[in-house]
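Work Package 3 (structural annotation) set out to generate three-dimensional models for the target panel prioritized at the project kickoff. During this period the team completed the workflow that converts sequence records into discrete structure tokens, so that structures can be stored uniformly alongside our sequence database. As a representative example, we reproduce one entry of 221 residues exactly as it appears in the project archive.
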Amino acid sequence: MEQTYRFNQEGLTKKNLQYIVDVERHLRTAAVLPEDQIVTLIDTMVTDVKEAQKKSITARNLFGKAPQQYADEQNEVITKPKPKEPSWLLRGIDGGLLVMGIMLLAVAGTAFFGKSSSNVTTIPISLILMSFFIGGAGMAGMQYYTLRIKEQGRKGLMKYVLYAVIFVIVWMLLAFVFTAILPVKWNIILEPTIAIVLGVVVLLLKWYLKRKFNITPITRY
């Protein structure tokens, strides 16, 4: 089995060892990275793969690419400046705008299609505000737990599902409590037409911020 850098093989399965050796071979063949960076990259891979093995995750599944594809990606990532990742606050705002925009359009659409029923022709501002704040926090949290799926496998998936269920329950409870305690005079009622216009504006703002701050889905990292 070809190997140039004698990294610590102890604990690696034959398949995972071969994957790392293949990545190293492609890195050296490309001759893009200097020796010290290749050594650092391989050592990091070995550590990550050994941790993944404890959860029965193979190197191929961990990195999600064939050895040559992964090596090519590392050559590109390391030699080019890495774009600044958006903060969790920006991710929360992005998620909040998405939820709020969808909520405005969905509730307003329901109001138009159900005009014969008097209880669906107006939208309280409390519902919209809660959609932004709780929805934003919830979306950021779901992206956080998306990372845990990749790192922890089935255990991470269970955490993600549990978080999603708890989030929906908390959202409904807080929305109910907030609407109940908010004075009626402050709980402005939006007409369906205004809600639709506002929903479009909110989604356009989300699109603008997404492009301006390069807010990409967490699964791309």
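Residues 116-121 have pLDDT under 50 and may be disordered.
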